Give the backbone structure.
Amino acid sequence: MRRFPFRMLTGLFVLCLLSVAALVQAPEASGEATADKISIEVQPTIFFVGEAGALLQKCEVILDYAGPEAVGDLRIRGFAGELRQALPKIGTGKHVVFVYLPDHAKPVRATFSARVGNSAAFKTVVLAPQRKWSIFLLPNSHTDIGYTELQSRVAKNQAEYLDKVVEFCRATDGYPDEAKFRWNIEVAWALENYIKNRPTEKVQALVNLLRSGRVELSGWYVQLSDMFAHEELIRAVLPAKDFSRALAFPLGAAMNNDVTGFSWAAPQVLSQAGIHYFAVGINETRASAPLRRPNPFYWQSPDGAKILVWNGEHYLFSNLHLLLHKELAESEPRVAEYLAKLQSRGDYPYGLIAFPIGGRVEDNSPPQKELSDRVREWNVKWAFPKLRLATMSDFFGALERNYAAIIPTHKKAWPDYCTDGVGSAAYETGLNRLAHDDLATAEKFAAAASLADPAAAFPKAEIREGYAQTMLFDEHTWGAYNSISGPEEENVRGQWAEKSAFVYNAREIAGTVRNRSLSVLAGAIASGADLSLAVFNPLSWARTDVVRVALPKDLVERKGGFRLIEKKTGAEVFYQIVDESTLLFQADNVPSIGYSVYSVVPGAPPSPPAPSTVIDENRIENRFFKVMADAETGGLRSVIDKESGRELVDPASPYLLDQFIYENAEGGRAAVDNRGARASFKRYPTGSGSAAPGLQGPVASSLVLTSRAFRHPDIRQEIVLYDGLKRIDIVNRLRKEETFEPEAAYFAFPFRIDGGRFRFEIADAAMAPEIDQLPGTTRDWFAVQNWVEAAGPKSSVVWSPVEAPLVQFGDINTGKWLGKLDIPNQTVFSYILNNLWMTNFKASQGGPLVFRYAFTSRPGGADPVASARFGAEARTPFVAEWLPKNPRGSLPEGGLSFFAVDQPNVLIQTVTAAESGEGIVVRLREIGGIETRARISSDLFTAETLTYAATDIGENPANTFEVVPRSIYVDLRPFQIVTVKIKNPR
């Protein structure tokens, strides 16, 4: 198709409007005009030029001509006067003529007529007003910490990129404002590395750009995933907040790309950090974006906090599809087609749009100054669409100023498709979940130790580094780009070595801080001549649970020849010895974030009462539950709540409770990835099973089921019942053979609850599957924090996974790519492992694996507070510490609560040192959906009048409350997180 870009000159265009007679006429052709040799199509474009203060819209007129070569003319009626344009000599074929029409605010009925030689035709069209587009380009480097190169190399590259950003900003200072180089630092981890590894003068140059608005820092530390735990999600914004405060630059927006979902608490966490804008560019590989993109929406968390989200195209869309980093001849037709389709869609009323853009079409892309050149060239040529290199806040500010009133609001959860990949490293995923709990425990006791002993400085740097390490493991980049195609290649192994090291570092930091802090506290407890141990409770309510602690050598040698006495009450405590060196006993009513003390007294212990737990072949039963196992498969046929008489196992289910399921994908990974068809799987049964007693004693008893399955030669499932606790613990140990063949494995938990509906905990919030979800988010699997509740009108079950976060509801849904989740039963599947991704995640795993679960049943319906407490207790064990002899200790020998809150629906999420260095910070979270006034107390507070304020999570005062001597009262909205800063606790 030939194109004739005839652009009317300004003078000629004015004549067109004023006088038809004065126009230059095209030569008249001899003979009778006919319409059968020529036809006209009219295609308005999105492009405008500016001529003498007027806007002209570019329009394509397509002439399909079948006659002999001839000259002609094109005439357009419908504007203020007839417009004419001479045509050169054209021959047979299609020809495109560009005309520039006056801008119009209302529809114009225009007639286009063409005469070529003896042929003539006309076309009448209604020309709608064309939107004047502004395109905001957000230069950034999509930060995969790994994937393209080793994580350590990526860190160095990103620092080098920021050097270039400073250089390019200086080099384009003289450009038009919209073409000046700008940069969006996608994650605060990149700035952190830069500050650590660059001299002061280079850091200051970048800081100056952050202050001026040429560079903007995203609020998140790294790209997120649904693996982030409660406090970890909050810590994900604190590095950026700290940099903003310390270096005096604004922080107003956040960006996450590639990631397909975020915790529903994100609007609350961001807004409390002063961040009200969030830009996302979802990768729809094995996923979908919510709603219909691109679109903006206000996103509300359960507490009502709200942020403005830009739900944009794929983060490389402007490079891959629009080619906006290339020459105009390549990008113009792509942009024209895209924006024309978007405008015709009918549900995008906005005149502006934003795209992240990289220097190249790749992850971890370096910046390119040529972006400024392309924008300058484009804007010289076109008045609209107008291109602008921008920061996130530039775009969001324009969007909100012009369209805030028509942007919709959604108060729904946004679960993450990509989270299923964490099942490719089940062992390390489980360890990092334990690190989450260990860090929370360590931080609380470190804060208590710093108050109990002024010489015990709070380990602020270590705690910060511990959270950084858990985040670096939980963030979305898990492995190399060729992790599946070349699993044994050096870069794949090297990236996994660095990635997995984050877990071990986090565990080491958490364990070291916890042990050091408990040692300080144990050393401060008054103790006499008897050997004593303190049982520490990390949770913010008094609780009863089982304690496991290693015995000192001299007690191992006594082989149980001692008595255990609770100091505060003087009560004799029954215990049992496990594996000859582990003491197991039940500690009752241990104070909130506090301790109770137990003495070891020489002498023979009293005979325990008759065992309340009976183990008989495939049955284990105590006063709370009767459990019948199927030894052959390792599943449980029946679990009866003896208090209510209810059967908890669904007899209609094809699976037994805790039954192991292993499968291989038929058709390989490509079949699973195909969202147009359901994948099929070959499943293998367990067999060759047996049952035998495990633990037996006055505290805990267990039934051990042993079986095997394809590629799992040793499966051991231990069912544990407790004499004093209404709880069933399950410890599943697998020995797995490694394979690269696509695989997945599950444990089934088919509960029976009449009229039951599911609800489960996510980071800093809870949600109901399907009911609480944004359209387009994952229905196939979800990531759980501490608990899943199946609640009916009369009874409920609450279930807690320890190591394995992934769950599926109602059925095994892998490979279904559900648009709607129908849940016909109360079966929850623990999705323990897989290697189904085609990139990024591990291709195989093997060796010993452990998956622990706990569940209980209760009368009555949904109770998020009871479920939250049960889940936290299942995940957070008591910690015991043997006490040195210290009769003059400053802490009482009977027990003490370091920190407590008086309302059951409010929990203390963490206690930490204040960023200012003065006092401590207590973070509260309301979990019951109830407006509440709560009182914080501590046996360590000695100041007669406490100076404190409720703050945002960045410790900026939000509001103050009634001050009562030695008391703190805080008001919380439903599901709100409130941070309380106490300046003078002692």
